[in-house]
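Hey,

The postdoc asked me to send both predictions to you directly instead of through the lab channel. I've kept everything plain text so nothing gets mangled by the mail client. Protein one:
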Amino acid sequence: MKKIGILFGQERSFPLAFVERINSKNIPGIIAEPVKIDKVIQGESSGYSVILDRISQDVPFYRAFLKNAALCGTAVINNPFWWSADEKFFNNCLSTKIDVPVPKTVILPSKDLPADTVELSFSNLTYPLDWEGIFKYVGFPAYMKPFAGGGWKNVYKLTDMNDFFEKHAETGELVMMLQEEIIFEEYYRCYCIGGKHVRIMSYEPRNPHHLRYVADFKPSKEKLKMMTDIVLKINNYLGYDFNTVELALRDGVAYAIDFCNPAPDADIKSVGQENFDWVVETAANFAIEKAKNQVEGTDNLTWGEYIKRSTAGKKLY
């Protein structure tokens, strides 16, 4: 019997529907359940052929559990080793090398010294930074956000240089990105599952959270294909099995704004019934596919083109 597990936190609608959908298919030799952990012993199997991870980004214990499980042959969605290494600034850097349009972006050292460091720890950092060059490159208005993490936490819209310094003083030990504002005509949030299934959803990030999927942009077939191609390229290079990509369209160009969301919102109350049904069904089918192909004791993780090309000594682009 192959078990598919889902590891989750406070959310309920998606995890429970995911388990129910898989089990309702009555596939011989495959069952699904919420993951159960009573102990984690080094080098011992988790008992799951597949685990869909929705919470380890917030719980280091779970991330360690998943790495051990993957080492023993569990197909973890998403790859916990890559997820641990990835962050939003790297995603932007990679995009500049694979011809995916992104806003002009720089990374900034934290305003406050990180714990267990002193001023001498930053001997290689020029102070003050070249603020004139940074502001000239990014321009204003701009957005400042953490280089890792999500959920629209600690995100600032900045109008000018003085506004930047005032807001940056509030960020403490957070490492922030400063990013060009893309004033868009249309905006979309796109699920990508299994590196091949894409759902493009109208999205309005300027609305209150519960109204963001109420937007009703109507993209042409050409725009849909352009966005689908971008979403697939990003996820195939990063190696995510389950992710969302946000695209802002300005003057016919689709800019990738936020595309490191390996545990994206899938709650029925926010994404709506149609999107919810799609993501539950598609995630269930993909997990079943992974379970059927899983081989005990081998590496069953997804590795992106960036890693595969790097280890093979091939050029990235």
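Protein two:
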Amino acid sequence: MSYESARTYAGHMPSKMLDSFSHYKLRCQSCDQTFEDDGLLLECPTQHESSLLVTEYKAKRFEPDRSAEGIFKYRKWLPGTRGLSGAGSSVTYKSEKLNSLIGLLNVWVVFNGYWPEKGAVLETPTFKDLEAWAVLSRIPEQHEEVLIVASAGSTAAAFARACSLNKVSCLIIIPQAGLLNLQFPEGIDPCVKIISLTGFTDYSDAIELANRVSRIDGFFSGGGVKNVARRDGLGTTMLNAVETIGQVPDYYFQAIGSGAGGIAAYQAAKRLVEDGRFGKKLPRLMLSQNLPFVPIYLSWKSCRRELIEISEDDGKKQIRQVGAHVLTNRHPAYSVRGGVFDILTETQGDMFTADNLEALHAKQLFEETEGIDIDPACAVAFATLIKTARYGGIERDALVLLNVTGGGRHRQQLDRKLIAARPALELNEKEILRQEALERVVDLVH
């Protein structure tokens, strides 16, 4: 059963369920239609060019609910129907040492990870934690199908923990290289099943298998970047930063794979600008990728809306050379209406690159300066910030926001005994193409 056929269309839903989604509507960025949400909708039902749905909230003022837990203090700008216990949030701070190192005056960090002294306690520990809680909050409570999540590593960890705590049936598909991220203070619940893809497989293979499984009766897709809850959950990093700083930044630095985090930051900043109290101009998005696998960078620098084509063989070879594996999505949200091309164009943003050596150097500099480790993907973004500042690409007094999308992983391992999650099924690159693989997946959860 496809997602489209499984979807409960809003017009046929009980009014009580519709009321639970009454604080917002969904709008298609291509045809401009608006419609009610059912908690599962991923695409506009009208046939036209590929386009991302966006949420339009009744609340136009940014008013955090400080009595709520974690990201749910931003619930007026989240599409969920309920708050869930156990959710965390970002932490924003300014470091004079870091500013001195970079050579700027007004750099702020929005930190997502584990750093108890700063109040950062994301358990998985990356900003993917934020999207997982937002997605689960949006799923209707009585929905009984199995959630399918494809991941390079960080998203898998976030959904494994959030689904375990909330007893949500979930099937996670992940390349073998990403299993290192799946370590938790406590074991995962049996309601979460993990499939590891072995051999010469990558994130895109996980996505393709997840798409096939989601068409089977009893399963539904988490939707990736198409899910408005994932983007609005990730967008709480921008909300947290502006809540702390008091204004929208001039520049925003982040490394991207699918592009979801950059799109999320843009959409959150747009709401804040429309509020009118935090600045009148969107931040310039300064997004980055890890050499040699840089399809978004190459496409943007070629001034083309279409994503540049990289053969499957070349793509896999490049991916094996990348230090930040979570940035290796062969099918990012670049060309889609409302995707990376559009947000870079609207914000006069730019794409940058860092190789593994530059990222490793940046990672070491951050840890020496701040006293906390950061993930390779964040190191890519930090490396590009250092280079841009060094060559005069940023005004010295500009307000700059660096999204540390994951940090404190090593610190967490020192503080706690972590339990590694084990896959329930392993499939190699040949097996995932066979019909038998789908049958084994169904048997796994039923």
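Summary for protein two, as requested: The domain at 91-122+230-413 is CATH 3.40.50.1100 (Rossmann fold).

Thanks,
C.
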